[in-house]
Design goal:
Organism: Terrapene triunguis (Three-toed box turtle)
Strand content: 15-25%
Main location: cytoplasm
Keywords: Cytoplasm, Nucleus, tRNA processing
GO biological process, one term: tRNA wobble base 5-methoxycarbonylmethyl-2-thiouridinylation
Distance between the termini: 99 Å
Subcellular location: Cytoplasm; Nucleus
Helix content: 25-40%
Number of helices: 35
Radius of gyration: 52 Å
Number of strands: 52
Length: about 1250
């Protein structure tokens, strides 16, 4: 007999054993000789044998190490021989050692094991250790740990006849010896993960699989489903990842000729409970008896079995969650768990209990292998069970009238009130075994319940690569009969999984080569290859590989998915990053899904952190529960935010406000979503909302959470675009609208019951209506409340109101109602001393009504209302009225309270004008004085403000003489000259003082050449041309030449210095200066910052040193700012200071264009062509110099940096000034232009265009050029 797998072949024929190692020669053991062979045929043709060693006592057992570097041999003399892979002996040891091993326990001195408590058996059984069972073959057993560092050997002790397990190191150094275990049997298997060693123990009343630690101590067990003496365990085998323990058993022969059955059981552990998941019955036929059972060394869930009749079986197992699927009208979330001959069913719709507990369990006669829920969504609670004897048990819900004894509620003491199914029918499925009568356990796989009387199953075809789909239909036989095989559909391929779509009556079949076939079981057509389908996911196949690659149809969507589930419109997946992602499939394409899974910026609503290794079990329909199973087996219920919001939206669309409210309150979803989801629907169904909630506390909770923001746009954005209409009342605030609507509905339904909620609606408004709320409380004082009315008393209402509003604030508002009964009622609930407020209230009651209201309003600091009440108290209180106006600056309000022709109005106006005068608002003060008839005061105010036109008007109203007007005009002209308003001053002197000569001199001083010429010719004083005008324009021309020359010199010097500073900083940045650079002349210019230093870059450098300056006056701050931008060579910000100086130079030169333009016209008029040409040429040179220098001053990088000031080609004079370079208050300087006055400082810079388009073309061309360069 033989059995093959990936790395070796094991052939067992009595005493003949062959071990094959990959491409290495295999080892053959026959009796006591070792042979090596290079080839093995299917018929075991042994050729080219070579003896590599001989053992006189014979070999009983051999085992390769997991890394195949060592082989351990056990001889007939109970010795161990460790050899290399080339069969060179390393060491040899006796199995039976008197010593415990290197891991011997240390006794700390408080007793021996013999003196300790031994349970109900007492100490006597410990002293006598029974010998090994008669079914024990007596051969040693060897098993390696997964990493190959340790090996365990089980052998029968010669002294006691009982088995002991010893753990040896890789060098055959004894590590530990197991404690005496009565009834220990031959099976031995070390868990590949290295934690436990499995064996079996026959106890007086049961048969257990026991586990040892590496130190030889027992660590847990579970009981096999057999009575004592019924079966023996041949072998125990762990799969590659230590998740499944295979138990190979066979019946014990009670009679000589009796038949023995062979079994293979697969056990798993979850939540510290061992489950029997699969039971394979090989029958009693001789050819069906197992001779070898092996797990695949590379594929964790592949099991190989070899029978005596040369029948080889290969099983590929995978984990599957058996859960029901129902539509919205049939809400079930049942999950079935196989546990031997029981099916544990948990109804997650009603309760979530940790396994192995369950809602109810089904007890069957044989071990269960498969469970199938009905695929019809309306009957998804019904289930069918296929057991190891190929019998199908059908359980249905709702039709049974008698309680089924095979169905019991709960487990481990837990019970839940749910509707349980009952056993309706049991069918027998006949499996054809062929002529050789070889049994094929689990002949039917992928068991599916299609219809009430139709089942579907898949079996193996004649070839290993073929499968057959069977339709099993209920026949005419009585209950307990056979199912009729209605149809068998061959499939060219090995079907490894399937899924059913009950809506389209289609089944998707997955083949081992990855193909997906579509089988329409209603039409019984041959399965065809499934197309990729629409990219809009109208119908798609979802699949997950064992390497966590998630596919939709033939497109890989993600590569880190550990489990997935589809519910309604959502797809939920768990990932290796320990997150659970929930994405909507509505109107979604594959590209959008791929981008969503690969994106790092996933919306918070769709992503949730979870425990490491969690996997999805099921999603409860029409609920928000997502059931996850942890790696150790326990369950956890989470409420994924996406599922919660989707379910809340559904409830709100169906006007199920109560369910939505309770879910939101429980899961801490902001209650604003109740309104924001659909404002129009909410306002139309406010009464429905109140009646469904039917709780004053819940309604108050809703009020307190209201906010103005729209939570569907901020916190809970909808995953898809919604057609919800906008708010009907856009001008009204959201909170006010809800409060008003709900208050109206509550007053209509039952104002007594919802009294507290009505008060809350008043308080919660954007402007709290505390007076109205207090008035409603006051109205309750005279009413009696009966228990049937569900109302509240005035004291309870006031107490609740005090919970919402501060008591002092409420006291003030109650006082503002002028209702002293209400004031006393509120004061009694506060902490105020009656000795304080009662005298105050008594004093108020004695006052006249208007004065009483004035006193209360003044106490509450409601000065406008107090002013209104005080104005009604008569003239005797006008002085108090005026004092209140002055104290609180209520002049505008006071002027409205009295007619304009009354003395009170005049008095208030005068006070108002005095107030404006004190605030230096002279012009406004003058206007108010003029209204009140105080023309003298109005004249003084206008004189102070410089409003010479209004001042002359007031002088006229006062009846000033001509001389008085002339004196006033000269005074005003002097002030205007100080303000550099020479033209206006000239008008005053000419028209009111009749002094045109002085007016001409002022115009010459202010460089208003053309206006001066007009006056000279008006009064025919041509002599002034020679005495004053011509000398003034000649002096102005010389001053302009000098100034332009200085501007060009300064500009050139700053430009050259700027280029030097930039070059040095660039060198310092690139590290091109050597160590002696600091000793050179420009050492101080080396900056630690980048080559382009902006104001924002350097702001942090001076933030600490100037922290004290920031607290000083604005003058000191400007001074500090100027100090930072110093032109001193070597200063850190010298480049910025140079840019500032250059910008100032450009602005000053630009501002000269208008003045020079006017001067040139005067020079040309009087024949000074050469002087005019000289001045124009000087201005052109200055402007051209600036234009040529702009690109190298303001480089491209400097212009593209948004943090840099706007200077040069990218900005105008105004933008240059607003960029921060004139923060120090610097003003442009120009030369003195008048020989009469000797020149003065210029006003702040501003751009003055050429005022005469008919000026010189060259000057216009130059002006256009500079405008193009600077604007």
């Amino acid at each position: 007999a033989y059995c093959f797998c990936l790395e070796y072949i094991l052939v067992s024929c009595n005493s003949l054993t062959i071990h094959w190692r990959d491409t290495q020669p295999f080892l053959l053991l026959y009796m006591s000789h070792l042979y090596i062979h290079t080839y093995l045929t299917l018929l075991i043709a042994l050729l080219q044998l070579e003896c590599v060693g001989s053992v006189d006592s014979g070999l009983t057992t051999m085992s390769w190490s997991p890394d195949q570097e060592l082989v351990l041999l056990v001889t007939g003399q109970q010795t161990l021989i460790m050899m290399t892979k080339d069969f060179e002996p390393i060491t040899e040891r006796e199995i039976h050692q008197d010593d415990f091993g290197e891991g011997k326990f240390i006794t700390v001195g408080w007793g021996k094991k013999e003196t300790q408590f031994h349970g109900s058996e007492g100490k006597q059984p410990i002293a006598f250790l029974p010998p090994a069972s008669s079914s024990d073959d007596g051969r040693p057993r060897v098993t390696w740990r997964g990493d190959g560092q340790f090996v365990a050997v089980s052998a029968i002790c010669p002294q006691t006849g009982a088995r002991k397990v010893r753990v040896w190191s890789r060098e055959l150094v004894l590590q530990s010896t197991s404690e005496p275990i009565p009834g220990l049997e031959q099976a031995l298997a070390w868990k590949p993960s290295g934690s436990l060693i499995a064996s079996t123990q026959e106890k007086p009343n049961k048969h257990d699989v026991v586990f040892f630690e590496k130190n030889g101590l027992l660590h847990g067990e579970f009981t096999l489903p057999f009575q004592k003496g019924q079966a023996k365990v041949n072998e125990l085998l762990w799969n590659l990842d230590s998740t499944i323990l295979a138990v190979w058993l066979e019946d014990l022969k009670k009679e000589k000729n009796s038949e023995t059955n062979t079994y293979v059981q697969l056990w798993t552990v979850g939540n510290y409970h061992w489950y029997l998941k699969q039971s394979l019955h090989f029958g009693s036929a001789e050819k069906s008896r197992l001779v070898s059972l092996l797990w695949d060394p590379e594929i964790p869930y592949r099991l190989h079995a070899l029978c005596r009749g040369w029948h080889a079986l290969c099983y590929d197992w995978h984990w599957s969650t058996d859960c029901s699927t129902g539509d919205e009208s049939h809400l079930v979330a049942n999950v079935a768990v196989i546990d031997g001959d029981k099916v544990l069913v948990t109804a997650f719709q009603h309760s979530v209990v940790p396994p192995p507990m369950c809602t109810f369990q089904l007890q069957l006669q044989q071990a269960v292998n498969q469970v199938a829920f009905h695929t019809d969504p309306t009957k998804s609670a019904d289930l069918a069970v296929l057991d190891a004897s190929n019998r199908i048990s059908v359980y249905r819900v709702g039709d049974g009238t008698v309680k089924d004894p095979t169905v019991t509620l709960g487990g481990s003491g837990f019970k839940a009130s749910v509707e349980t199914p009952h056993l309706e029918k049991t069918y027998r499925v006949e499996v054809c075994c062929g002529e050789g009568k070889q049994v094929n356990p689990l002949a039917f796989r992928l068991f599916t319940w299609l219809q009430d009387d139709t089942f579907l199953a898949v079996s193996q075809g004649q070839l290993a690569t073929h499968s057959v789909i069977h339709h099993l239909t209920e026949g005419l036989e009585a209950e307990g009969g056979c199912l009729r095989l209605r149809l068998s559909m061959p499939v060219d391929g090995d079907v490894i999984s399937l899924c059913c779509n009950p809506k389209t009556r289609a089944i998707a079949l997955q083949l081992a080569d990855g193909q997906i076939l579509k089988y329409l079981w209603g039409e019984c057509k041959i399965p065809v290859k499934m197309s990729a389908g629409s990219r809009q996911l109208l119908e798609a196949i979802l699949g997950l590989t064992d390497r966590c690659r998630f596919f939709i149809n033939d497109v890989e969507v993600a590569s880190n998915v550990t489990s997935f589930a589809r519910y309604d419109e959502f797809l939920l997946v768990t990932t290796h990053s320990h997150t659970c992602q929930c994405v909507s499939l509505r109107d979604t394409s594959l590209k959008v899904l791929q981008a969503g899974f690969s994106s790092s910026s996933t919306p918070k609503e769709t992503l949730r952190k979870m425990e490491r290794g969690s996997r999805i079990v099921t999603v409860v329909p029409q609920d928000t529960k997502l059931i996850l199973q942890m790696p150790r087996g326990n369950l956890e219920t989470v409420h994924h935010r996406a599922l919660v919001l989707a379910q809340i939206r559904k409830w709100l669309d169906r006007l199920m406000f109560k369910e939505a409210f309770e879910c939101m309150r429980k899961l801490r979803i902001n209650l604003n979503l109740l309104y924001d989801h659909n404002p129009k629907v909410f306002l139309e169904n406010v009464e429905t909302f109140i009646k469904q909630i039917d709780s004053v506390n819940y309604i108050n909770l809703f009020f307190t959470e209201l906010k103005e923001e729209d939570f569907t746009k901020t916190m809970y954005p909808s995953p898809v675009s919604s057609n919800v209409p906008l708010q009907q009342y856009p001008d009204q605030k959201k909170v006010d609208l809800i409060c008003d609507s709900m208050r109206a509905a509550m007053e209509n339904i039952n104002p007594q019951k919802y009294c507290l909620s009505i008060l809350t609606s008043h308080v919660k408004k954007s402007t709290p209506e505390l007076e109205i709320a207090l008035q409603k409380v006051h109205e309750l004082r005279g009413t009696t409340v009966s228990p049937a009315a569900e109302g509240v008393t005035a004291e309870a209402a006031l107490k609740y109101l005090l919970f919402l509003v501060d008591v002092n604030e409420l006291y003030d508002h109650s006082l503002g109602t002028y209702d002293f009964d209400l004031v006393v009622m509120v004061a009694e609930k506060s902490q105020k001393d009656p000795k304080e407020y009662l005298p105050f209230l008594n004093t108020l009651q004695k006052m006249e009504t208007n004065y009483q209201h004035y006193t209360i309003d003044k106490y509450l600091k409601r000065y406008k209302k107090a002013l209104c009440h005080l104005s009604k108290c008569g003239t005797e209180h006008f002085s108090e009225f005026l004092n209140l106006v002055k104290d609180q600056n209520l002049y505008n309000e006071a002027l409205k309270l009295y007619p304009p022709d009354t003395p009170e109005h005049q008095a208030v106006g005068s006070a108002f004008a005095e107030h404006l005068n004190q605030k230096h608002l002279y012009e406004q003060a003058g206007l108010i004085f003029a209204r009140c008839g105080a023309f003298e005061r109005a004249l003084d105010a206008f004189l102070s403000s410089g409003s010479w036109q209004q001042a002359l008007c007031m002088a006229s109203r006062l009846g000033y003489t001509v001389d008085q007007l002339a004196g006033l005009a000269r005074s005003l002209a002097g002030k205007l000259v100080e303000q550099r308003k020479h033209a206006e001053a000239a008008i005053l002197l000419e028209q009111y003082a009749q002094d045109y000569e002085e007016a001409v001199l002022l115009l010459l001083e202010g460089t208003v050449w053309e206006e001066a010429l007009r006056l000279i010719h008006k009064y025919s004083r041509l002599d002034i041309l020679e005495t004053n005008f011509k000398p003034a324009i000649l002096e102005a021309q010389r001053n302009y030449l000098v100034f332009l020359d200085s501007q060009k010199t300064t500009f050139t010097r700053h430009r050259k210095r700027l280029l030097v500073v930039r070059e040095l900083k660039e060198q310092a940045r690139q590290g091109l200066l050597d160590n002696e650079t600091p000793n050179c002349l420009e050492a101080d210019l080396i900056s630690e910052t980048s080559s382009i230093v902006t104001a924002s870059d350097m702001s942090g450098k001076y933030s600490h040193s100037n922290s004290r300056i920031s607290a000083r006056s604005s003058k000191n701050r400007r001074k500090a700012e100027r100090k930072r931008h110093s032109l001193k060579e070597g200063s850190p910000l010298e480049d910025l200071a140079l840019l500032e100086a250059l910008g100032e130079n450009i602005r000053t030169t630009e501002n000269m264009k208008g003045e020079v333009h006017s001067l040139l016209k005067g020079l040309v008029l009087f024949g000074y062509d050469e002087l005019a040409r000289e001045l124009q040429q000087a201005l052109e040179e200055a402007l051209q110099l600036i234009e040529r220098s702009l690109p190298e001053i303001w480089t491209r990088d400097l212009q593209q940096n948004p943090a840099n000031p706007v200077l040069g080609q990218g900005g105008t004079a105004n933008t240059v000034r607003s960029s921060g370079f004139l923060a120090s208050g610097a003003r442009g300087r120009r030369p003195p232009v008048s020989g009469v006055a000797g020149g003065t400082q210029a006003h702040p810079l501003h751009c003055i265009p050429a005022r005469d388009p008919s000026s010189s073309r060259r000057l216009a061309a130059v002006s256009v050029g500079i405008l193009t360069a600077t604007h």
